[in-house]
Amino acid sequence: MEQELRDALGHLHDPSYRPPGTIYALTGCDPLNGPVAVQSALMRSIDALKPAAGVPASAQIVQSYDVLYNRFVLGLTQEEAADRLHMSLSSLRRAQRVAVHTFTRLLWEHNESRGTAPEYSGRHKSGDRLPANESVHAQATDWLGQTEHELACLQATAPDTVSDVAATIAGILELEKALGLHENVGLKIEFVQPGLSARLHRSILRQILIMALRRLAEYAVEEPIRVYAGLGDGDVQITISAIVSPDRQPTSQDLAHDILTPKGVSVEASIDGPHVFLRIEMPSVGKVNVLVVDDNLDIARFFRRATEGTRYRIVHVQQGEHLFDSISVARPDVILLDIMLPDVDGWELLMRLHEDHETRVIPVIVCSVIRERELALSLGASAYLPKPVRRHAFLQALDQVLPQAQTESSRPQGNSEAGN
Questions:
Q1: Each residue's pLDDT tens digit, 246-257
Q2: Domains along the chain?
Q3: Sign of the four-CA dihedral 115, 120, 126, 130
Q4: Is the pLDDT of residue 149 over 80?
Q5: Angle, nearest 10°, between helix axes 202-217 and 132-157?
Q6: Amino acid 294: pLDDT
Q7: Strand order in the sheet with 266-272
Q8: Of 74, 270, 326, 396, which has the maximum CB count within 10 A?
Q9: pTM for the whole thing?
């Protein structure tokens, strides 16, 4: 049902869209009224999610509403929505999956509370029973929701618990035979970045890995299932790959369906011929948000390349006037500020950041072609970085303005420098 709703949201403004019966039922619409009734109902339901004034911007319901509204009601692309919400593209994709899952559950619960849980038998009639396949789906969804709730409670009891990713993955090897792998399909750990730690309870990480490996074991043939783990965009990324038989090719939905995704965790499936992949993302320990204020898209791309494999996550804003809104959303640990901005003078922004008691604690690195190091420091900057920038100098500047505890092991070994 979640997949059908995702498809319906993607066609929210498409006059040629023909909803399946499950979507008519989920929205409480009569099929005789056509797709426009469904599209209107979905828009009203999204509007009903709009949080009341005073709800913290960090609340999950706020992010879910913002993502649903921008992506589907406004019809923005993922890139446009990510830019508007001051999020990275991977964070937007993760937030969208959570938002659609939440929206599906809320629609179901709303209908259930009215005694009209999703049903369809040619035409929607209040009081009819669910078809057998829908009942099974509802039970599976309910089980998954209960499981995720229990895991969330487990995480809440020990919020500061972290997982040694290498040790957790190594422990899975002990379960290789119990995971149901065929005799000619084993499990091989290809690469795990040293010192990798996830901000997630070890039991939760272990269970996610078990479910992912079991799922791939249903389709894998001939070659071992391979596991890779490293940092990407400031998050722990675990990729599990397998080769599948052409006679039993799964879909992306088949692969990722019902794998646990507690808050902050995402699972994404992809297929490339006989090769299938499951990528699991979760917050890393020591993740550092770097807000880049620069109208140059190329330098933002360079900063993202320069921080690959580190705990630094780049959030980019092109206009200085959006800086303070971006701070409330991105909650940066460091701000990298250009001076030559098209809309606002960078020196003025630097002074405002230093004078505001809420932002003056955020280290600011002035990064500009203007050679005014002493002026930058006198106005409150923590460091000055001249353009053109080299990777080593950029990472060194980040390390210098952060507490030592945040930067230990933040840089991978062996990467060559890149220029801009």
A1: 887 888 888 887
A2: 2-130 (no CATH), 163-283 (3.30.565.10), 288-407 (3.40.50.2300)
A3: negative
A4: no
A5: 150
A6: 93
A7: 187-192, 225-232, 235-243, 275-283, 266-272
A8: 326
A9: 0.53
